[in-house]
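Quick log. Single chain, no ligands specified.
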Amino acid sequence: MITEQKKRALLRVVLTFCCLAGVAEAKAKEPIDVGNRRQLFIDEKFIAESENITLTMNPPEYAGVALAGDKPWDEGFMTGSTIVEDGGVYKFYYNGFEGHTYGRKGVDNFSCLAVSKDGIVWEKPNLGQVEYKGSKANNLLALPDIHQVTIDPKASADARYKAVTLTRYSMTDSRSGVYLYQSPDGINWSRPVYLLPLWPDGATQFFYDHDLKKYVAYMRSWNYPTWENRPEAKVHDESKWPHGFLRTVSRVEFDDCTKPWPFTPLKEPFHLWGKNKIATPSKEFPVVLEADLNDPPYSDIYGGYIHKYPRAANAYFAFSSIYQHFPDETKNAGLLDIQLSVSRDGIKFNRLRSPYVGLGLPGSAREGQLYTVVGFIPSGDQIFQYFTAMPANHGHMHKEAHGVKHTSHIYRYVQRVDGFVSADAAYTGGTLTTPTIVFSDKNLIVNIDTSAVGKAQIEILDENGKPIEGFDLANCDTIMGNFPNKIVTWQGKSDLSALIGKPVRLRFVMRAAKLYAFQFKTMENLWRWPL
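-> predicted structure:
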């Protein structure tokens, strides 16, 4: 029998759940404050309702060789690290190897610098720092293996530049690991700070996140496969895939980039190469990218190469190398291309799977491996991106016996500004309605391409979904053409000052159109590329 006391207690529980549900529902209905920042259609965040709309990943266009391995110290193999801009000059940090020496014992790579004013023509300046075969007339930097260079907005003038390197004294030396160097000019570097006593063995980067107001780092980590229910993906033959481990990408955030990265040591560190050798990162850090059941067997994430997009709000891109191992090979061999993953917070990523940059045709010198250079270069309404490519597959680049010429170059690709992903309307027409938003500037600007036979109109709805008088579909001037920044007008008028701060929804009615982004801003104050 339920007593009166129990009934009251049960009623309190029910009322509590109802209140919590009501709060959750209210929060779900709260407008998204888009302010005056550009918003991208990289996911469904701004798609509350749609019909005949498809989110589409848009690969960049190949634009040829950007940086050739044409010096004795970089003609064998090149890996691009980072591009940064400082005072109108772009600085390209990369690693080079002598011809056919990659993978040989005792052979180290060279840290190099190239410079450009337009991202197209690059020069290799004589820095006079490192002697190579009796001469310092070269572009070599007195740094070990560079993985990321960033300009720190919080640093003093003498430490503006930060470089993360992997320094290996030997695989059994406890001093090996991740180090930080600092510089006032990106050329002359201070003594290093020891950041991490683990060996990621590739793809390590960090930067300051202005929205989080913290530094974040991403690194290669190693873990067991997580697909226990997929027998064909399990690997027990160590000769085919050493130890059966997978490469993943981990993340850590911190307040002071000059101090060691925080982590809790594992009871049993991940000793990939043997108990007496330096351990690799593993479960010390949360994993943000990894292969899953949608990936084929024998594939993993070779490196994250994560960018925070400076032109828009809350947009992170990972241009990751996906490594497809050859199951019948015995020495870590396979192919790598580039996939795009998108995120709103830099933690939870959605992998779009299709190649963002695919392998080149046979004979193109881009048919074996692809790796991303961290950094964008804006050029008008385009973005330049850079990728290292080579003809040999991963395992064969270690083997001269295969007779494969290992020379690699760094290539330039061109992407439309904001163009990584678009909301595409069908040829016969489609509609897209945003959730409720509030904005803070008077013009609606869209990045849209209808080409010749497409078109678009936008109407503004109130929070109940009713068209607002004067800003309805009938009054919207039709958009036709290709516009990276198009002011939307209604009967020739664009001023939305009366709606600033009010909850509204946007309804896009389109045909054969690609919608990339929207923003509330005046054209004269438009941030084309805030850096």
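The radius of gyration is 26 Å.
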